[in-house]
Every structure is written in structure tokens, then in C-alpha cells.
Specification:
globular, binds adenosine-5'-diphosphate, binds magnesium ion, 6-stranded mixed β-sheet
């Protein structure tokens, strides 16, 4: 942990009709850590992610990513700056094979790739061989080797999550926001995903993860941001939240189970 702030979210607001979906949301995410974002259904977690990642402009508020202001930038520009997000439902390239989906992750954020093309085909070829080795490793480590030649659309929901994860592991972006990565995933795959998040953080990425499974949050995250009714009601290590009356009441005692 460097002490550097990766993401600074300041006083975000957005209303839909009369509903204040995000209502003064502020928090900071330290670089190279995993932060959980939790809160009851309707707390505004997914909407906050939309605002941070450029999918929806806020009514008010600021977001800085390693000092760079993000509000007003498109999702495409924001992902090129190194902040990428997943959706509650996995979005794979359905007509492409599993292998090509992961290969695309590898190429997505590679700044060297464009300039490499200038040095002639020999080097490109060598790089492509290296890419194929890396993709095979990733397919293996996410148990996707047996389905690598299938169109991604043919996979189960849990397998699509793994493809998404393999793609993110390939891209190794500077910052990843995961919206309910455990949805539709069995506990064994869930452990693989937890390990993948820890690997990303160990390699210097920052990860923010929305997840209802509090045991998962406790196991994977260095600290937790708790949202309720569009704002942050607490932030700290998971162990510090169990004694926070506001958090406990927002969760109606669910935290006792962990
Ligand atoms: P969470 O992800 O924490 O479950 P959401 O961000 O999905 O919460 O939703 C927060 C609130 O905003 C909810 O009351 C939801 O119904 C409302 N909301 C979210 N998106 C829209 C939208 N596009 N139009 C109208 N209401 C919305
Ligand atoms: Mg949500």
C-alpha cells in the first residue's frame, strides 16, 4: 500500500424523477487495495458505479482517478485511462469463442501494441505467440480450457463470469470495479474469483467490488464502504463495521452471520 489515493469520489448526486438514487456519496479508495462496496438493495451502489465509470452523468459531484477528473469523460476514455467496470449481468462477446474473448482482454489496454506494429511483422508474430501462451494459462487457471473453442454465448452464467474474469486478469487494468461478481457463481468458482481479485491487487491494481456475500467481502477486501439511501454511512475494515449501529440496522442483523 503506497498511501496514494486511486479514486476520490466527492459528493455525487443523481435523481431519477423523484428518486434520489445517489444523494451525496463521498469516499476514497487507496491505490493497490481491494475495497468492498456494500449496502441493501436500492442503496445506490450500481448507480454510483455508473456515475464513476462515465455511463451516466451525475447531477452534481466530482470523481478523480489518480488526480485526473473523470466527470464529463466517456466510458471509453475512462477505460483507456485504466478504470474498467463489469456489469451485474456479464457482458461477453457472445459470437466470439471463449479464447478470443480472453485474447481481446489482453489487447484491450496494451499501450505498446499500437507502436509494436511499426517494428514489422516478425515482432508482432512473437508477441502473438506470447499472447497465446498467456491466454492458455488464463484459460487453464479459470477452468475454461475445455470450452475454449465454444462461442461465449453457449456458456452458463457462472462460466460467463469466469470468462469476464479471465478477460480482466488478461487486461490487468489499473482499477477494476466489479458489480456483484459472485452472481450465479457456485462456491468453488467464487473462491477462484476471490483469488483472482487478490492476485490483481498483489500486482498493483486497485479493485472495488460490490457484493452481497459478506463472507466473501470479509475474506477479500482490505476495507469496506457501506452505502444506504444513496450515501456512505460507514467506511473501514470489515471488523469495525459489525459494531456500528447504523450499519447493523441497515442490514437488519445480517452481519451477525459472518
Ligand atoms: P443498488 O445497486 O445498491 O441495489 P441501484 O443503484 O440499482 O441500487 O438503485 C438505487 C435507486 O435508484 C433504486 O431506488 C432504483 O430503483 C433507482 N434507480 C436506479 N436507476 C434508475 C433509473 N435509470 N431510473 C429510475 N430509477 C432508478
Ligand atoms: Mg446493484
Amino acid at each position: 500500500m503506497s498511501g496514494e489515493v486511486a479514486l476520490d469520489v466527492r459528493d455525487l448526486h443523481i435523481s431519477f424523477g423523484g428518486v434520489k438514487a445517489v444523494d451525496g456519496c463521498s469516499f476514497e479508495v487507496p491505490a493497490a487495495t481491494a475495497v468492498g462496496l456494500i449496502g441493501p438493495n436500492g442503496a445506490g451502489k450500481s448507480t454510483a458505479i455508473d456515475l464513476i465509470s462515465g455511463f451516466q452523468p451525475p447531477d452534481a459531484g466530482q470523481v478523480h482517478f489518480h488526480g485526473t477528473p473523470l466527470i464529463g469523460k466517456s466510458p471509453h476514455v475512462i477505460s483507456q485511462l485504466g478504470l474498467v467496470r463489469t456489469f451485474q449481468s456479464p457482458r461477453e462477446w457472445g459470437s466470439l469463442t471463449v479464447m478470443d474473448n480472453v485474447m481481446l482482454g489482453l489487447k484491450a489496454f496494451d499501450r505498446e501494441r499500437a507502436s509494436l506494429a511499426l517494428f514489422g511483422l516478425g515482432k508482432v508474430k512473437k508477441q502473438e505467440d506470447r499472447d497465446r501462451v498467456r491466454v492458455r494459462e488464463l484459460l487453464d487457471s479459470f477452468n475454461l480450457t475445455a470450452v475454449k473453442n465454444l462461442p461465449a454465448s453457449r456458456l452458463s452464467g457462472g462460466q460467463k463470469r469466469l470468462v469476464e474474469f479471465a478477460r480482466i486478469a488478461a487486461a490487468a487494468p489499473r482499477f477494476v470495479i466489479l458489480d456483484e461478481p459472485m452472481g450465479g457463481v457456485n462456491p468453488v468458482l467464487g473462491e477462484r474469483i476471490g483469488a483472482a481479485i487478490k492476485e490483481l491487487v498483489a500486482n498493483g491494481s486497485t479493485v472495488m467490488v460490490v457484493e452481497h456475500n459478506l463472507a466473501f467481502i470479509d475474506a477479500v477486501c482490505d476495507s469496506v464502504v457501506v452505502m444506504a439511501q444513496g450515501r456512505v454511512i460507514a467506511q473501514g475494515p470489515y471488523s469495525s463495521l459489525r459494531d456500528n449501529p447504523e450499519v447493523v440496522s441497515a442490514y437488519l442483523g445480517e452481519m451477525d452471520n459472518v
